[in-house]
Design a protein that fits this description.
Cytochrome Bc1 Complex, Chain D, domain 2, 2 domains
Length: 434
């Protein structure tokens, strides 16, 4: 047998070309497989839009057993537009929450029987919010409905007259009984016309509250039972008033599906505005998620009238009112008084940090709900963007103003694009038929 030839290592001159060839191939593969800047931008865009591909269903309201009852909602719809539930006979829920104005009123501050101090927020999509009203003094739709009817500057009515009106009107009575059955025992006689209601929060006793106190407990309980069901009907109706999908939602779906034609539902300016909103101005630090709100409370440092220090306590004053409200989720008329939301309410504290804080509103339909801010100080979206751009006039009250707020320093083009984007968040608004 012939001995095998000894193994010879390739010399260095042979190995270097092989190494360089492999390195070159690796470099070419890396170059041609690396995403371009345009591809990276598109991937970031898709990632930012993916949360808008699916919108959650309405959260269940366990505090109102009739929240999704069509019969209760039908009764609530009747109450919503009835001006007879006001002392002037001219104001209803729909006076301020006008269906033709995206359920706002277009006024700087609400005007009912009297003139309020805050702007009317839309009720579209309010069933998706944990807290109601600017300061969160209500934590359910139905508890929110109770205060305006008896508020001196809103409808200025009283619950006894409200119950008696339902009993006296054949259509209202039929709608009530269709949803809830027969009226409870213990109510006043049908022709009894004494006006009465509990004392208003923070107000001194008056003739109506003294009349309420003079009623026997069983009569007060029966009146409150009917009144609370009226409010729960209004809550059930308002759950049907959801904000509809916008052109931006259509754009998000098209971009994520690589539907270039469908993505043209937004103009180039509107599409750029989303980038300004999300990446440049970072508006979604507070106006976050599919509903464009974090649902929480913030102090923007808006100055008071004539440049004075802010005088609206906001969340700080609302928390004690909420915790004592018998119509809250933790109150006597709640259908889930030991539930999660009720536990949250009982644990709230009105500490100094809450002074002047207001709830972050949803930006859906924001182009249809001018004027803006809790006091309606800005007539246009351009004015709102200008305020955030410069924070001109904002009052720094130590820890009482949001530390996240910084002047944005946007260019004129970026501000125009941002406003265009905000207007693209409007969905279809269907008028409520009588």
């Amino acid at each position: 047998m012939m001995p095998s030839a000894p193994f010879k290592r390739p010399n260095l001159l042979t190995r270097i070309p092989l190494f360089l060839c492999g390195l070159g191939m690796f470099y070419l593969i890396a170059i041609y497989s690396r995403p371009t800047e345009a591809q990276l931008q598109h991937m970031r865009l898709v990632k930012s839009l993916e949360p808008f591909l699916e919108r959650a269903s309405l959260p269940v309201d366990r505090t109102n057993r009739w929240s999704d009852d069509d019969r209760a909602a039908a009764f609530g719809k009747m109450l919503f537009g009835d001006v007879r539930f006001s002392s002037s006979g001219e104001v209803s829920c729909a006076t301020c929450h006008d269906p033709t104005r995206s359920f706002t009123d277009g006024k700087r501050v609400a005007v009912g029987v009297g003139t309020g101090t805050r702007n009317t927020p839309t009720v579209l999509g309010s069933a998706r919010q944990r807290w109601q009203t600017w300061d969160g003094r209500a934590d359910t739709l139905w508890s929110q409905a109770a205060e305006p009817m008896e508020s001196a500057v809103e409808m200025n009515f009283d619950r006894v007259s409200a119950v008696q009106l339902v009993r006296a009107d054949p259509d209202l009575l039929a709608a009530y009984e269709n949803a809830f059955g027969a009226m409870p025992l213990g109510l006043p006689p049908p022709d009894w016309n004494q006006k009465a209601r509990p004392v208003r929060e923070g107000a001194p006793a008056d003739a109506l509250s003294l009349a309420w106190d003079s009623l026997v407990p069983s009569r007060r309980e029966a009146i409150d039972e009917v009144f609370s069901r009226m409010m729960k009907s209004l809550g059930a109706f308002q759950r049907t008033l959801d904000a509809q999908p916008s052109r931006f939602d259509q754009y998000a779906t098209a971009v994520c599906a690589r539907d270039d034609a469908g993505a043209k539902v937004l103009t180039e300016s509107e599409a750029r505005g989303w980038i300004v909103f999300h990446e440049v101005a970072k508006c979604d630090q507070c106006h976050s998620g599919v509903e464009f709100t974090d649902g929480e409370f913030h102090n923007l440092g808006l100055p008071g009238a004539d440049g004075r220090l802010p005088d609206d306590r906001g969340r700080h004053a609302a928390i004690p009112k909420l915790k004592s409200d018998p119509f809250s989720s933790a109150g006597a008329f709640s259908d889930d008084a030991n539930g999660k939301q009720a536990t949250l309410v009982r644990g709230l504290k009105s500490d100094p940090e809450s002074w002047g804080q207001m709830r972050t509103p949803s930006l859906r339909n924001v182009g249809l709900t001018a004027p803006y801010m809790h006091d309606g100080r800005f007539a246009t979206l351009e004015e709102v963007v200008q305020f955030y751009d410069l924070l001109e006039g904002a009052v720094a009250l130590d820890h009482h103003r949001e530390s996240v707020l910084r002047p944005l320093g946007l260019s004129d083009g970026e501000k125009a694009d941002l406003v265009a984007f905000l207007r693209a968040l409007g969905g279809t608004t269907r008028p409520v038929e009588n």
